[in-house]
Amino acid sequence: MRHHHRAPSSSSSSGSNGGRLAVPHLACAAAFLCLFVFATQSSFFAGDQSSDLDGREVRVLSGFQSSVQQCVAKRGLGLSAHIIDHCNLVLKFPKGTNSTWYNAQFKIFEPLEYKYDVCEAILLWEQYRNMTTVLTREYLDARPDGWLEYAAKRIAQLGADKCYNRTLCEEHLNMILPSNPPFHPRQFHRCAVVGNSGDLLKTEFGEEIDSHDAVIRENEAPVNEKYAKYVGMKRDFRLVVRGGARNMIAIMNGSDDEVLIIKSVTHRDFNAMIKKVPNPVYLFQGIVLRRGAKGTGMKSIELALSMCDIVDIYGFTVDPGYTEWTRYFSEPKKGHNPLQGRAYYQLLECLGVIRIHSPMRAKMKQDWSDVPNRDMIRSAHAAALRLKKSQAGQSGGQGQFGSCKVWGKADPKNNGRVSGSSDMSDLRKYSNYSKWELMPLEKLRKEARDHFIHMEGVSLYKMDGNKLDDLVCVRHALRSEA
Ligand SMILES: *[C@@H]1O[C@H](CO)[C@@H](O)[C@H](O)[C@H]1NC(C)=O
Ligand SMILES: *[C@@H]1O[C@H](CO)[C@@H](O)[C@H](O)[C@H]1NC(C)=O
Ligand SMILES: *[C@@H]1O[C@H](CO)[C@@H](O)[C@H](O)[C@H]1NC(C)=O
Ligand SMILES: *[C@@H]1O[C@H](CO)[C@@H](O)[C@H](O)[C@H]1NC(C)=O
Ligand SMILES: *[C@@H]1O[C@H](CO)[C@@H](O)[C@H](O)[C@H]1NC(C)=O
Questions:
Q1: What's the pTM value of the predicted model, to 2 decimals?
Q2: What is the bridge-based pairing of β-strands 308-314 and 355-357?
Q3: Ligand 3: does its nearest atom lie under 6 Å from the Cβ of 83?
Q4: Does 366 sit in the ligand 3 pocket, CB within 6 Å?
């Protein structure tokens, strides 16, 4: 089980970092970004053990760190990046930043600096560009524990800890379980992810948002004439959490082909709702089940990256001056970790993952020359991957299927049909799945078809949340074989 191996000095290295940076690590324990925890704590590079390292990779990554540092200096609105080594850096808020969010559990205010492992972050986020992030039947079929255990975890109120009765579990999932991936990597060029922050009311981004190939919104976000100037009117995808199920019927009224993606678990309220709306509904794949699924914003970005080349974010509270999280359509919610969130989103922008749009950046509009370009990101990714494999003592496994732990084969009979089962309600039978479920693949944009061919028809899924090295890979017939 190679992925359980760690470089021996890795734990002592992160231990000593933990001592020096005790405060960030404390905050990190309480963080809503489990990703951040992952990136910080699983630093795979041990500074004092560089003898077997490939100097070329270290040089590439060091050069990349400098670009990230410059990017943060230019775009970070006061944030600065301090390089520790070719993988690790610390993002610091300016001295005197007012840290007003109090963590009652640890009795501290939010820290003003955050340590990140850029190598891990770039591996993780580049991986999303090739992933399927919607739960499918082929995924459950491929996982050895797929139907018995994993499926049960995605159904609340099942009344059992496992799917001992598979028929019962299928009844819960059938309505929302496509046979193959309904969406594809590179399906869209530009996507807008619209958060719900109150700062959306400060700038009229509506038209700009609507100019995207697909728009992803969250939960109960209203889309109507009243807010059109600020958030636009285009409705394509919506990521929803449990609590949102009840209000969804009213929200989806008049938007029959907007795709709903349930973030964490399905349950009675969702099932009742799904029977009453014609919209396509799916379940998100890739949440971290053990820690619960927090951070809708981060999941929306994962979803977007799995379909889009460029991900523009609007209405995320990422810029200075927030003391609580506001919403554009209702009273503020009690906020949490504004500084930590801001630092991480800034890092993501400088890793080329997202583009941040906010009232404070109106001047920077459409100028991304400060951000490392795709070629730099690709070579940094390749270097980080080689370095990681060489440190884990893995010689092979560097190809595109190097992280496939479980393999499955799609049922060739399903080719051509993605969603829909025989026991759907009449309303669901008329769902307009065809808006985005592009079958045959010939209808996809060229980049997506090229990717499909490059991947030899294999779809990649996460086994569990943020782990890099344990993918579920399902092979589909390429067109020529079909
Ligand atoms: C920091 O924020 C708190 C709460 O918003 C405020 O009462 C305080 O005056 C602020 N301090 C500074 C130095 O801005
Ligand atoms: C993603 O797919 C592209 C081909 O479209 C490939 O070149 C790249 O290496 C892949 N990246 C990862 C992280 O798997
Ligand atoms: C399994 O669930 C189905 C559907 O709810 C039900 O009809 C059937 O009786 C159950 N089987 C057992 C053995 O409990
Ligand atoms: C949907 O909207 C229409 C007109 O805007 C309204 O007449 C109807 O009652 C609404 N339906 C629901 C379920 O809210
Ligand atoms: C379904 O969506 C497609 C693409 O948006 C559209 O062309 C078609 O008219 C829609 N069909 C129905 C029945 O709404």
A1: 0.85
A2: parallel
A3: no
A4: no
